[in-house]
Every structure is written in C-alpha cells, then in structure tokens.
Amino acid sequence: MNTPFDPETPKRPGMLARLRASFLTGLVVIAPVGLTIWLIWTVVGWIDGWVLPLVPYAYQPDKLIQNLLGLDPSVQINVRGIGVVIFLIFTVIVGWMAKGLIGRSLIRFAESLVERTPVVRSIYSGIKQISETVFAQSERSFEKACLIEYPRRGIWAIGFISTTAKGEVAMRYDGGELLSIFVPTTPNPTSGFLLFFPAEDVIELDMSIEDSAKLVISAGLVYPNGKDSEPVEITQPSGPVAK
Predict the structure, then answer these.
(1) What is the pLDDT of residues 85-98, one digit of tens each?
(2) Cα-Cα-Cα-Cα dihedral sign, residues 110, 111, 112, 115
(3) Domain CATH code at residue 186
(4) CA–CA distance, 33 with 31 (Å, rounded to integer)
C-alpha cells in the first residue's frame, strides 16, 4: 500500500504517446532526406524542361531509346537527367572556349554590343555581377564570421566580413579602417543587409563561415559544437557604434 511518503513512481507513457514519439523521430530522419531528393528531382526536371526542347526531335533521348529497343512510338519514356548532362557538357565547352584568345575576343565584342543597348545593358550588367560574385572561382568570398552591435548598442548580431571598404566609401570615412559586413537574415541567409563598420567595432569569431551559417539558419538552435555553446565573455568595442 502506497503512503504519502513513498516516492512517486513515474508513469509509463501510453501507446499513443509512444507512437507519437516514434512518428516525430521518423519524421526528423525522413524529412531532410525526402526534401533533398525532392529538391534535386525538381531542379533536374526544370533543367531538362529547358534544355531538351533545344535538342532536335530525332536526337531526343526518349526517341533514341525507343529506336534502340524497338518500342512502340506511343510508349512514353521519361529520361530525367539527360538535359543536365547536356547542360554540363555545353557549359564546360563554353567555359573552355572563353578562356582562349578567340573566346575572349568574341566575349568582348558581344559585350561592346550589349553596352550600346540601353535597357539590355542594365539587365546584363546586373546579372553578370551577380554571376561573377556567386560562381566565379576567385578570392571574392567571406573572410570570417564576426559579432557586431546591431541594430543598436547592446544587441549583437552575427555578420560575415566580406572585405575592406574601398573607393569612395573608404575615402569619405576618415576614422581609420572600415570593414564591409554582410548581416544575414534568419532563416534565409541569402538575404540581409550590407553594413560598414569600423574595424575596432568588429569582433572576429573563431567558428567557420559554414558553422556560422548553420547557427543563423537554425535561429540559434544548432551550435557548431559543444564548446561554442558555452558562454564567453564579450569585450565591448571601444569605438563608436553605427546606429
């Protein structure tokens, strides 16, 4: 017989609670895999739908397979991924040609024609800058992750140091070295704000850019490792803080 002084025995979860826990655990395992497969399948289908219509009808992959296997022409064959292969091969060939003297000359000639077209010039220059920033294999990448006081003093945000300010921005500022900081938004780090901070107001972090991006995307729920979740003492910057 139990008395008020006996330790309370924890109740065993019921069948519904155990099923719910198992379902959530399975969802955590399946969701990333399923979404990744779905995203890849969708992107491949989108590229196929854009590339395959450019291939002559007689050389369409499904027609070639039908002729090879002797199938009825009414049989529909979905050959997904061939368009991606064609796109990759075509892109490699274009890139190889663009590195040569003739390719560079043709590109300069085409760009000179585009520069003379008012509307096309603005669209092309914007897309070209974005493409060079995202895809070009150069040193234009974030250098380090950092902490800055934004949007006001006492509130800290994670940013990425892109480069030292140059040109008119650096010339107009006479307070020393100025850093350009990209502050991403959560949970979509591809959008954010470009801010310019004095170097003495920026606290560089030891974590990598990838780990910092994980922290931003997860809204602070996923830390790179255990030691990063331990509290650290932050030294207040001595210089002025951008408002």
Answers:
(1) 888 888 888 888 87
(2) positive
(3) 2.30.30
(4) 6
Our measurement of the distance from residue 71's CA atom to the centroid of its chain's CA atoms, rounded to an integer in Å, reads: 43
Query: 241 lies in a domain?
Result: no
Identity of residue 93:
I
CA atoms within 13 A on the CB side of 52: 17
Positions in the chain whose pLDDT score sits under 70: 1-11, 73-76, 130, 132-141, 225-243
pLDDT on residue 242: 44
The predicted pLDDT at position 241 comes to 46
Please name the residue that has the structure tokens 């969701």. 31
Question: CA 98, CA 93: separation in Å to the nearest integer?
Answer: 9
pTM over 0.90: no
pLDDT of residue 6: 53
Which residue has 């950092």 as its token pair? 146
Per DSSP, the three-state class of 134 is helix
Structure confidence by residue, pLDDT tens digits, 29-69: 888 888 888 888 888 888 888 888 888 877 777 777 777 77
For 37, 102, 104, 121, 133, the CA distances from 109, given in Å and listed in that order, are 42, 11, 9, 14, 22
Beta strands in the chain (DSSP E): 144-149, 156-164, 178-184, 192-198, 203-204
Residue identified by tokens 């006492």 is 154
Range of the domain at 208: 144-229
pLDDT of residue 148: 95
Of 207, 187, 195, 175, which is closest to residue 242 (Cα–Cα)? 195
CB atoms within 10 A of CB 184: 19
Domain count, the chain: 1
